[in-house]
Amino acid sequence: MIQRRFPLSVLILVIGAVPSQGAMTHGLTIPDDTPRAAWLERYTEARQGPEQTDRVVQTVRVGAGGALDLSNISGDVRVTGTNASEITIEAVKRVRHKDADEARRLLQQLRVDITTVGDRVEVRTSYPRRSGSSGERNISARVDYTVSVPIRAAVTIKTISGDAAVTRVDGEVRAETVSGDVSVTGTPNVTSARTVSGDVTARDVVGTANLSLGTVSGTVFASGLQARSLECGSVSGDIRLSGIQVDRLLAKSVSGDIEFGAALARGGRYDFGSHSGDIRIALTSEAGFELDASTFSGSVRSDFPVTLRADGGGRQRTDTTRTIRGSFGDASALLSLKTFSGTVVISRN
Amino acid sequence: MTTVTCQELPIAAYVDGELSPAEERTLERHMEGCPTCRALVADLRTVRAAAFTLDRLEPPADLLARIQARVAAEPRASARLLAWPNTRGAWGVWLAAAAALLVTTSIGLAPLLGPAEMPATGLAPAADQASLVDSVQADLQAAEQHYDRAIQGLERIARSDSAELDPQIAAVLQKNLQVVDQAIDESRAALKTQPASSTAQEGLFEAMRTKVALLQQTVELINEMRKGNQAEAGRLMQDLSR
Q1: Backbone dihedral region for residue A221 (phi beyond 0: left; psi -120 to 50: alpha; all else: beta)
Q2: What is the mean pLDDT of chain A?
Q3: What is the pLDDT of residues A231-272, one digit of tens each?
Q4: Phi, psi of B102 (to 5 degrees)
Q5: In which element (H, E) is residue B171 found?
Q6: Average of pLDDT values for B99-121?
Q7: Which of residues B103, B123, B143 is at a domain's end?
Q8: CB proximity B26 to A under 8 Å
Q9: Which residues on A lie below 8 Å from B202 (Cβ)?
Q10: Alpha carbon separation from B47 to A238, B51, B104, B116, B148 (Å, rounded)
Q11: For residue A129, what is the DSSP state?
Q12: Which domain holds residue B78?
């Protein structure tokens, strides 16, 4: 039966831990036609047999809106909004097995179930149950989806191993995976983009109310984003935010750095925290803020002339400045920056 | 001087992150001078995190429908201490947590929920400073113990069932738990040299909160994988990095 532990993805992780130049930029995967990719293909084929594929295409008319709910196990999912009033699902099933007949049998058992209820289309990937036979361990199976939806459709994607990407969809968007990158571009109503192992990228997301971007081991990127509130989190990865407009921001990492290059909103609240990473804030406006910046063993530096608090606790100086508490301008925004061993820098951009 | 009763402050809404930025700032300014409210917030966060270590109980089949019907029939609750479970798998934990919370909060928070009335500026009389410091220190130790218990319980579950996870994901989670452990160790070492450092205290509790959240989600992921419902496991990622 089909193995569900995705040895190919593990192999890619080991061999491709450091992507070749240009192969990966900010979570966008660009087809890798380098010699290494060819070598990987040959290695995989020798180990698991040649790849057998089967393509399934189905179109469902849903009106101007509609909803797509797609769950996958292994494979990439890419969804794009179009002006059509239909949802078109293209699924490419991929199976490897050294025995060609067995591969074809497995390909048939690997099902793509498409169910329509009103304007809602549900897509499920169904794997055959594992038999537990030790002779069938070196099998890989995945389904890659390319889906077009009406631009106003609601989209929910959940996958276990693979990338998830949604582009130009105005309806509510949720995109989640366990192992893979997640990217949302031009999706004004995205509410969640998350992964465990991989990067999360949000670009040109304008108008969403509350947005949550999270990963455990990857980096969170956000640019050209306008939202009422934004939460970003990573354990060991960085958080890089540029050109964003939010009233409320919470950005936290344990060992990663945090970079923020944008303007503060009047009355906004911005919380940044990292245990061992640096926090670098480059403000693009002169909006006033109340500052609470501290580090235990690093240093704090502000290029803005902050008026320190009168209670004497505004600045604690040893050899280096570890704490700055005070205000700049009308102090309308609140800026909280906390790191344990990292450096805090507030500069003008 | 304007006085407010600590009990009137929207502490629960603050812990749930439901206040507006302006309301949060007002409350935080109060808490800067009010160790009682600070300790209450710390303890509520600890209780919330510790609840997830309790045994899983399966709710009656019709319970969700009945609760949803009642919630729909009632106006919006004024304050929500704990976030509503967003996965079916979380229901059992939350039901067990609800029972335990009745005990935990009544025992652990009783001294903090007394009818204390504090000045809005929160400056306690000098004579009480020493006892307040002792009280806060005790609360911090209690909070740390809560976290330790939560972490130990979750670690036990995660270790025993980790074979259910994809090896790659298990390795990623393990590596990141080590990152959090290092943060906890560094914060604890810092507190030994500078026990009064608020940065070190905040660092310790933030790292512990992160570890509890990471372990909690690891266990949820294991549960879903064990049930063979791997597609459902994707739903569990939504709170992973909070």
Answers
A1: beta
A2: 83
A3: 999 999 999 999 999 999 999 999 999 999 999 998 899 999
A4: -60, -40
A5: helix B167-193
A6: 33
A7: B123
A8: no
A9: 338
A10: 29, 6, 7, 21, 12
A11: P
A12: 1-123
pLDDT at A66 over 50: yes
The answer on B180 and B98 residing in a single domain is: no
Check residues A115 and A46 and name the one with the higher pLDDT. A115
- Name which of A10, A71, A235 is nearest B231 (Cβ-Cβ): A71
The residue range of the domain holding A327 is 199-349
Q: How many domains does chain B have?
A: 2
Residue A58 lies in a domain: yes
Instruction: State whether residue A10 sits within 8 Å of chain B by CB.
Output: yes
Residue A342 in this model has a pLDDT that exceeds 60:
yes
Cα A103 to Cα A97: distance, rounded to the nearest angstrom? 5
Size of the A and B interface in Cβ pairs below 8 Å? 147
A136 and A228: one domain? no
The total number of structural domains in chain A stands at 2
pTM of the complete model: 0.68
Nearest to B204 by CA among B159, B155, B146, B152: B146
> Per-residue pLDDT for A8 more than 60?
no
User: Which residue of chain A comes nearest to B229, CA vs CA?
Assistant: A73
For residue B154, the one-letter residue type is L
Residue B33: its pLDDT value, please?
75
Q: How far apart are CA A19 and CA A32, in angstroms?
A: 9
Q: φ and ψ at A98, to 5 degrees?
A: -70, -25
